[in-house]
Amino acid sequence: QVQLVESGGGLVQAGGSLRLSCAASERSFSRLGMGWFRQAPGKEREFVGQIYWSTGSTYYAGSVRGRFTISRDNADGTVYLQMNSLKPEDTAVYYCAARTRAGVQGTAIGFDYWGQGTQVTVST
Predict the structure, then answer these.
(1) What pLDDT score does 27 carry?
(2) How far apart are CA 47 and CA 37, in angstroms?
(3) Per-residue pLDDT tens for 84-111?
(4) How far apart are the C-alpha atoms of 77 and 89, rounded to whole Å?
(5) 3-state DSSP call for residue 102?
């Protein structure tokens, strides 16, 4: 069973930046991609973005496009979420997930492994 561990969350002022990391317990486990999701208090979990493992191409939700960037370290399989120009509405618990089967872009379908989440709080 692959375990994913997020880190890098914290408190930041609006307009600031944070970088989240997601490390897998097995560096070379087979995956189609890695995604980031978030869930704010009282709201449904929402898709943030994903990186396709074979190509490195990325796809983002409209609410974060142009501000957030997903990247990966090919050496150890760690995935990063660089968040810039943060807004109070970005406040949420952020989760990374591994996509191991076909799904629907922009949704959680196909993501079978999930981390425990890391809190990101953006103050005004």
Answers:
(1) 82
(2) 5
(3) 999 999 999 999 999 999 989 999 999 9
(4) 29
(5) coil
C-alpha to C-alpha distance for 92 and 121, rounded to whole angstroms:
7
Query: What is the three-class DSSP state of 31?
Result: coil
User: How far is it, in rounded angstroms, from Cα 10 to Cα 117?
Assistant: 12
Instruction: Give the pLDDT score at 17.
Output: 98
Nearest to 120 by CA among 37, 63, 44, 47: 37
What's the confidence (pLDDT) of residue 114? 97
pLDDT tens digits for 15-61? Answer: 999 999 999 998 888 899 999 999 999 999 999 999 999 999 999 99
For residue 91, which amino acid is it? T
- Extract the runs of DSSP E, i.e. beta strands, from the chain: 4-7, 10-13, 18-24, 33-39, 46-52, 58-60, 68-72, 79-83, 92-99, 111-114, 118-123
Residue 124, token pair as written in the block:
């005004």
Report how far residue 116's alpha carbon sits from residue 88's, in angstroms, rounded to the nearest whole number: 22
